[in-house]
Inverse folding.
């Protein structure tokens, strides 16, 4: 069984610096620029989020969490968008597949997935700017697990401040 | 925590699976509105449009000669007999017009201009054009086009006795035969399959288009994408490359085409 002590304590809003808040918010807002530039090549968005994550992961856990959270949330929409591009190209350029109900249903699913991604990313950006946490379904828990879980004894020892002897 | 993660993942997958499933079962797509018009309604619509065109279009007259009627009957019977189960009662009319054209109206009404019959070298080429038009009928392209242009409400208002101006507009659009590229391709494919099933060489379509191309001059290849119809070249290619089934056996119509043409051309040319 896991306990709360297995995780680093979460910083409260007043403990998060302005710089950290802005870096965390940037992880979500940067995605919008990447989405705009990347269409219709969804892979560009993914590359952009990986780059942003690599730059920011060594900063505070708060920034690390939000960068990873945003990157993870980017993956399913990127895959869905790539799937749509692939499917569409097969239909309209190679004529090997045809427009059917599965394709139409898939388009709607991709539209809804992207809308949800945009809406929740904006909420997450606003929350992170306020120094708060916001958890997407699945990806929030996963990011918290990766970033805040204490990995070994050494890390635990390192994290504990002691008064002078 | 791992279980909670798995549960979250499952929720996510179910959520998007359900969204996809719902839109597959209840598709929201303009073309699907064609389903809102039943076949009976389509036949009724076809009847109204045909009556209107025949009554109000000057010079739009049917041609009948024993040789012509017999030839058209032979060709259409062969093709329609191979369609299999069809909901349409086909009516094929030949119109006295020098244009090289054929078009389809709702409800299985196909019109061929006498100009096209004169341009064709033999009955097989006319069968190739007819097979293509049958493709438009069976795929319900005309109704789909009319719904796209006029909206479902106007179609229903015409069915319930809408105004004459709109009906005339509807007829003009139905005749203009500008199907989108995908629809033309579908009709071509359907037509080629039907020709092969009927013992008529799909290459007849290529022969027809080759001559049509020669007559109308060649186009810049780059224009193809801009055209609503597939370019002659791609249609010729598709017809030549069509793979015939192993049991294919060509059956000649035994129609003296020159005699058919002479039967209605005397004194006209």
């Amino acid at each position: 069984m896991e306990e709360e002590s297995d995780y680093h304590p979460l910083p409260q809003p007043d403990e998060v610096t302005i710089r950290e808040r802005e870096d965390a918010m940037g992880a979500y807002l940067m995605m919008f620029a990447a989405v705009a530039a990347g269409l219709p090549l969804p892979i560009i968005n993914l590359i952009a989020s990986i780059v942003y994550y690599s730059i920011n992961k060594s900063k505070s856990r708060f920034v690390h969490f939000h960068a990873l959270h945003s990157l993870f949330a980017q993956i399913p929409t990127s895959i869905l968008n790539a799937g749509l591009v692939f499917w569409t190209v097969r239909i309209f350029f190679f004529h090997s597949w045809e427009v059917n109900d599965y394709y139409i249903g898939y388009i709607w699913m991709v539209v809804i997935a992207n809308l949800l991604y945009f809406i929740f990313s904006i909420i997450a950006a606003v929350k992170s700017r306020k120094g708060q946490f916001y958890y997407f379904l699945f990806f929030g828990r996963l990011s918290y697990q990766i970033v805040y879980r204490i990995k070994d004894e050494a890390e635990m020892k390192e994290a504990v401040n002691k008064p002078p002897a | 925590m791992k279980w909670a993660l798995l549960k979250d993942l499952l929720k996510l997958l179910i959520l998007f699976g359900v969204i996809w499933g719902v839109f597959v079962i209840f598709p929201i797509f303009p073309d699907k509105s064609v389903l809102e018009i039943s076949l009976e309604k389509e036949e009724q619509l076809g009847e109204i449009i045909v009556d209107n065109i025949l009554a109000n279009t000057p010079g739009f007259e049917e041609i009948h000669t024993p040789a012509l009627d017999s030839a058209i009957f032979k060709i259409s019977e062969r093709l329609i007999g191979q369609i299999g189960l069809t909901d349409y009662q086909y009516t094929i009319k030949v119109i006295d017009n020098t244009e090289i054209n054929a078009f389809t109206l709702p409800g299985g009404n196909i019109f061929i201009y006498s100009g096209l019959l004169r341009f064709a070298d033999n009955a097989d080429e006319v069968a190739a054009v007819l097979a293509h038009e049958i493709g438009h009928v069976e795929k319900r392209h005309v109704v789909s086009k009319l719904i796209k242009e006029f909206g479902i409400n106007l179609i229903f208002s015409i069915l319930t006795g809408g105004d004459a101006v709109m009906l005339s507009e509807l007829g003009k659009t139905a005749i203009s035969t500008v199907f989108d590229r995908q629809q033309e391709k579908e009709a071509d494919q359907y037509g080629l399959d039907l020709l092969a099933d009927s013992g008529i060489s799909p290459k007849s379509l290529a022969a027809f288009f080759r001559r049509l191309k020669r007559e109308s001059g060649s186009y810049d290849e780059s224009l193809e994408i801009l055209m609503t119809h597939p370019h002659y070249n791609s249609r010729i290619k598709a017809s030549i490359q069509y793979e015939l089934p192993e049991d294919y056996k060509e059956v000649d119509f035994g129609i003296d085409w020159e005699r058919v043409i002479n039967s209605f051309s005397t004194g006209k040319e």
Notes: Chain A has six helices and no strands. The interface with chain B takes residues 2, 76, 95, 99, 101-102, 104-106, 108-109, 112-113, 137-138, 141-142, 145 of chain A (CB under 8 Å). The longest helix of chain A spans residues 61-92. The mean pLDDT of chain A is 82.
